[in-house]
Amino acid sequence: MITLAAEKCIGCVKCVKACPFGVIVMKGKKAVIGDGCTLCGACEQICPVSAITIERAMKDIDLTQYSGVWVVAETEGSQRVKNFTFELLGKGRELTDILGQSVSCILLGNDVAKFADTLIHHGADSVFIGESEALSRYRAEAFAPVITGLISRYKPCIVLFGATHAGRDLAPRVAASLELGLTADCTGLSILDGLLLQTRPAFGGNIMADIICPYTRPQMATVRPNVMKKMEPDAKRAGEKITVPVKIDASSFRIVLKEILDSPQTGKVKIDEADIIVSGGRGVCTNGGFALLEELAGVLGGVVGCSRVAVDLGCRPKSVQVGQSGTTVSPKLYVAVGISGSIQHQVGMKSSDTIVAINNDPAAPIFQVADFGIIGDYRAIIPALVVEVKKNRGG
Ligand SMILES: Cc1cc2nc3c(=O)[nH]c(=O)nc-3n(C[C@H](O)[C@H](O)[C@H](O)COP(=O)(O)OP(=O)(O)OC[C@H]3O[C@@H](n4cnc5c(N)ncnc54)[C@H](O)[C@@H]3O)c2cc1C
């Protein structure tokens, strides 16, 4: 329930500008909340005199009124949908097939409605489309209230976000506004007795924790990209497209976005979407070893990744670190060079289609997850591999 204490209202108009659904108007010098309030919380957060309060009674709620799995899509501007969105839709389908419910996708951006069919082909039964200039790039102040409002209105049972930079910023804000729990960085999702079983690494990746949220709805999680499998797109799938009337006044934002700088990446393809990754660890850091890896990655058409130690030693940027505290990858080919294969590294690459390990220690744990192992010094092995690959490609 939302309450506006008229005696406290100072007529500053901030709530009118902040409401993404345009339901607050001024009557005389006082703000009035009209019909269609979604309880998104944007006005409550911006009001400087706490005249607006929202009460979300989670006690004794009827959990059966919550239904459906929602996936929050991410796009690269109006260029394309990020790959993990399709992975979450694939997992969403799997979960709803067990629950007997439907999968919906929230698609926010500017000029993004054209992606709705693709999302439906990848498993969505319906797509909520919200378009606005203010949504053209991810900004928490624009995205969070719209999603909070939609969840309050439509009451999904499960909401999934990507564990991306944006998802990790957005999901906790939405969860806090709705006074819900959130399981971050899940690597597994399943259904147990009708509840979402959320699996994630704990205690430095040494154990996997299973987490349930039995008392509140929706159950919310951020999910690591490159862990779930997307479904084969089916161009015959049909679904509903629901236009969300979004009215965002960016002049009310407290944060001004001046410039976006891309983090340094090796190669043009980002590591989380690369098909071929040649990764190096401590064993490669000395003697200019990464130059050899660049060469191999170059002839294979891949990118160079690394272990955390390689980042700590200053050989590579954090943006290409693979593993629990870096990026989870799932390429067609992963070549681990001079990487021992700690559990924290494995958690970020073990779902790769084919893993090749090159290490001079035959007991290195990386060989336990490798499809092919080469025991020896990488300084002799990599140049030989480069020659062979070039030969096979007629180079
Ligand atoms: C909370 C937490 C999060 C973490 N997150 C991550 C993460 O995201 N990613 C990650 O990678 N780690 C992570 N770690 C660190 C992890 O535990 C390991 O310390 C790290 O992965 C080891 O990196 P490495 O394999 O490069 O180095 P090492 O374990 O030192 O292995 C180096 C390997 O190189 C081999 N080698 C040396 N010389 C040669 C040569 N000439 N030819 C061939 N092989 C050679 C050695 O035999 C050895 O196996 C995390 C740790 C914690 C506690």
Number of helices: 12
Strand content: 15-25%
Question: What is the averaged pLDDT score?
Answer: 93
The span between the termini is: 69 Å
**What is the tally of beta strands?**
21
Instruction: Characterize the largest beta sheet: strand count, sense, and whether it forms a barrel.
Output: 7 strands, parallel
Given as residue ranges, the uncertain stretches (5+ residues, pLDDT < 50) are none
CATH fold naming of the largest domain: Rossmann fold
Structural class: alpha/beta
The ligands found in this model are: flavin-adenine dinucleotide
Q: What CATH architecture of the largest domain would you give? A: 3-Layer(aba) Sandwich
* Radius of gyration, CA atoms, in whole angstroms: 24 Å
Broad shape: elongated
Strand order, main sheet: write it out: 11-15-10-5-8-9-16
Counting structural domains, the number is: 3
CATH class of the largest domain: Alpha Beta
Q: Could you estimate the helical fraction of the residues in percent?
A: 25-40%
CATH homologous superfamily classification of the largest domain: HUPs
Report what the structure shows.
With 395 residues, this protein is α/β, with parallel strands linked by helices. Helices cover 27% and strands 24% of the residues. It has three domains: 2-54, Alpha-Beta Plaits, CATH 3.30.70; 63-252, Rossmann fold; 271-392, TPP-binding domain (Rossmann fold), CATH 3.40.50.1220. It has a seven-stranded parallel beta sheet, with helices on both faces. A five-stranded parallel beta sheet has the order 18-17-19-20-21. Strands 12-13-14 form a three-stranded antiparallel beta sheet. Helix 5 (140-154) crosses helix 6 and helix 8 (289-300) runs parallel beside helix 12. The chain is elongated and about 80 Å long. The termini are far apart. The model has no long low-confidence stretch (mean pLDDT 93). Bound molecules: flavin-adenine dinucleotide (FAD).
